Amino acid sequence: MSTTAITFPVSASRSLPQTLRIFLTETRYEFQRLLRTRSFALSVIGFPVVFYIFFGLIMNRGEHIGGITVARYMLAGYTVFGMVGAALFGIGVGLSAELSAGWLELKRASPMPPLAYLFAKCMSAMAFGVIIVSLLTLLGITAGGVHLSIAEFARMMALTIVGVIPFAVMGMALALLVPAASAPGIANMIYLPMSFLGGLWIPIMFLPKVLQHFAVILPTYHLAQLQLASFGYPSAGSASSHWIGLIGFTLIMLGIALIAFRRIEQNS
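RE: above sequence
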């Protein structure tokens, strides 16, 4: 897609309120676009809800793990499953398709700050994460007898917003490395095994020992353990080790994304 004929007035400087307004407007349009893309909205919200209904509320009703109900325990895993899906498919697959269509070139030719584009995608993934966690919590309370204090719910929401970031960066790296036609398939090949092996579908202690040892290198495992800790559940490992795992993963993905971006810039 050529953008040589497209010209926009470029402002030399903007005030802070003007910049904030651009960021917020771009975020609103990005969120509306994702919400109106039914295939995205229904699958990203629907999968964790359906999985939680079957495995957290129906099949294990009345069962307990470590002194808490399965419905409460699995709520942590499926909230992480939902927020990871929102980040990987909202940013990874979406950005890859827009790069292929030349949409990013059009954005760069416009007066909009380039960072607003990525900011809008990240904030939209966070918003979908909040929606998914809210729906799952409502299901857990109404159909699974889950009891959550306001402080526990607030901690879970705060972790949802922060926890999206590592997977948003991963989605950005994926978009820069993988062609648009292959992005959905590659995202699924990463998303589903990483969720299962991280203990998001089945409690980690029920997996074979070799898989439990493997799980500690996965960001999904660390985020799920932090989410469990927000309920007061004694998670495996310390909170600092889980945060270090997530930060390390984020830095690795950021490095990969920067290398891929520079390669694209050199070849363009």
